[in-house]
Amino acid sequence: MVEERGAADEDRRYEARRTLLKLHADAAEWFHENLLKRDVGEPARKYLKQRGITAEIAKNWQLGYAADEWDAFGSWARAQGYHTRDLITSGLSKTRDNTESGPVESSSAYDRFRGRIMFPICNDVGEVIAFSGRLLKDAEGAAKYLNSPETPLFRKGSVLFGLHKTKRALIEANCAIVCEGQLDLISLFEAGITNVVAPQGTAFTENQARVLKRFVNEVVLCFDADAAGQKAAERSLDALLQNDLIVRVAEIPAGEDPDSLVRREGKEAFESRVARARDFFDYWIEREAASVDLASLGAKMQLARSLAGTVSRVRDPLMRGEVASKVSARLGVAAQDFQALLPKQRSELLRSNERSEADGVGGPAPPPRHDIAMLCLLALRDEEAREFLREQNWREILAQVADGEILVRILTSDLRPDDAASLNTFMVTLSPPEERLVSSWLLQKAPPNAAAMVEKWWLGIRQAVLRRQLDVAANQIKLPNLSTGEIVNLQKQILDLQEQLHELSRPAGPGDN
Q1: Which among 125, 409, 452, 461 has the fewest CB atoms less than 10 Å away?
Q2: Bridge-based pairing state of the strands 116-122 and 145-147
Q3: Which helix (H) or strand (E) is 425 found in, with range?
Q4: From the CB of residue 208, how many other CB atoms can be counted at a distance below 10 Å?
Q5: Are residue 191 and residue 231 in the same domain, yes or no?
């Protein structure tokens, strides 16, 4: 019974995901038809033409247009058989009271995107999972750009726009040109500059930087020259440095952006601009110093304290020392005096991390826990063990396990350890610490009882996940002011989890798999 219920739940989740993917694909095509073929898209076509976006480019990127109407898309989607609940879950529709749960009447739902040029956002295999809409006409109180909300398909802080088209070029160049907007990226790509990505927002997140590190070692920021663009560059710094990426900054003239610049200068001139990009800290120190009267001791000291806060966030001790030397030289202050301004607590934390890394324990990238490490070893070295894991409900389980990401990476890859080309392709997607881990596992022999061991370790992980879920439910049911329905649901959940744990703990019989 437990296995049947688990299989049924898995089927429901699979069907729900498939429905959302199909809805997004259909929506992208409907918006695209609006732009290219329907009268309602004429203003959008004129705007894109002015921006140098031809019909062919619009087709390449499946650009679209959402009519400036209350429920144009929702009405069409319901006519295709989609339920209002699906439209709400996808983020393509919303309700007047922003209801996200419970029954939703179609009359209370309306289109999230209205009067906007639509950019489909795809995952790394090219499936549409979200949208970004640019307002065609300025409206008071309306955001110029609007993204889909977080959904079962879309996590804004983990997705890079255009990656599905540009990842091969990123690997070949070992360098990513990063711009702010979708139009910037599209213009560069269509001009032949294809090693380019854009974050879903104004600055990089830790997850986006981690994704990018799988493909490149260097990043060139091509953000707008205005204050907002420069702030975005600074906010991106922490995430990029934490993932050991080399960061440079290309000079973008005031009033320009990568889109306008590549259309005016052409590909070669823009590539030359990227090649001349300065080290981030050289650029940043000069920009900050140029805005202050260094002849004023008070202004100089205020700037020194401000710069020290940023320098202290540099994790690598050698780079931090070099940047500190550059700052002190540019400001004309003694190096030891500037070093004294670095926050003590941050410096001590960094020294602690550096000692941990030198000792091979702790630090920002510790090895995965033992059970995950064992499963990674087995998945890498034994074909039967790898196939066993792939037959399990591993995506859902590993999403709830600390350190599970490296095993997910192994199971989703086409890696064949006995094939050099396959191995090299896989290894370039890893960060340096991950690459060292995988290399150490590949040097080990698979144990003779791999099939039994993989089942043992996987069982332990499943039991740990269920116990954690049971603890959460047991704590929730103790909360005050729960409704009767909430209590009943939690009781059912606790009983179900207890039954699953009991089933997993039961010794396997002769007829069990």
Answers
A1: 125
A2: unpaired
A3: helix 420-427
A4: 26
A5: yes
